[in-house]
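Fig. S4 source data, part A: sequence.
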Amino acid sequence: MKNGNVTVMAVGLVLIASIAFAGGYFLALDGGSSSEEVNILRESVERQKKAIETSGGRATQGGPRLTAPVPESNRRKNVGSGKSVRELLFQARAESSPITRLSAFAEALSDLNEDNLDEVLEAYESLPFGFEHMQEYRMLLYAWGQFDPTGAIGYCNERASGMGAGFATTGVLEGWASRDPDSARAWVESPENAGMSKLYNMGLVRGWASRDLQAASSYVEGLESGEDVGRLIATLSNEYYKQGFGQAAQWAEGLGDEKMKEAAFANLSKQVSRDEPEVIADWLKDHAGEAYAVKSFETLGKRWSETQPESAIDYFEELPEGKARAEGVEGVMENWAKKDPQAAGEWLNEKEVGPQLDPVLSTYARVVSNENGAAAMDWAVAISEPKLQDKTVRQVGQNWYRQDKEAVEAWLPQSELSAETQKAIQNPPKQNWWQKLSNR
């Protein structure tokens, strides 16, 4: 039998696990970016948390205790099913459908507490502690971290070592920080954890931001700027965006550190620019001359051009000369050349060839060469900057050589290219299946 609280908790835990899979931080797969899918999942989790809180289920609310009381309604939930938590988990392990499997794990783990922990760990004992089961372990560590974080961390160190244990521990820290961020922070900042603190901050900030966004923001802003902090800023940006774009934009503009501001602007642009490009475009106009906004303009160009390339290119054409405009136009061309090479080519034909247009010509030629190397070569040789021209000609020529070796062999003697460049074109590197798929 399933009551309302159990169902909500189960769905919430499945979604949390999905976020960990998408974000990749459980196994060092976090690239510092957040896709629209991740944002949607995180928003869904937040809605589930609120539903749990209002219905009496156990979620992120609670006092500073490390051992949280479990509502009696949750403790009784498995009685109606006639199965113990251990039996539910072993049954879940046998499921072939990933949806049914993870839902069953979530249902069982929604009642995880100090009384049934040993039963749960018995069911996990023969489950490999690795990528193929990261979602199941993500749920376990998050739930365990809410009432016995030090025990959960010890478990991570028993099941793995080095970075593997470190990434697993971030899952514990998210659950811990969602209930008691002060204790979680103290643990991360303790001298014995200094070597892994940058990694541990990923879990700490995710959990803390779900409970107290302003406090989590103050913590991150007090850290020394770096690539790792950029990822933390992206996490905060996701949380602020849930409160509305205006709130998120105001927060990003108020950041004092330029690198942090750059990360915040870039993440907001990534989140919003595909579905609401005009919103981002209007916001970024006032930041066109700022270095921290350059990546945001590039992202806007790429995302906007997926749906409205002509509108996107018109917007960037109206911007003042500079890095933002150049990066934006290149971003548009990346997708426009794939979507409609003829229209993109006609736009290029209207422009005066020169240094400012060279990067755009290179992008267009490179993209078009994946389908039509011969046509792309005409654009590649029109590039005026020698080094960029040579680099582009080689790449375009290699794609053309893969498509029509005989035509390239006939063209090369009269191409006036250097012997070195001709040799490079005639020896294109082998492409794996992923490279071939990415070039489509």
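Fig. S4 source data, part B ends here. Residues 4-23 form the longest helix (20 residues).
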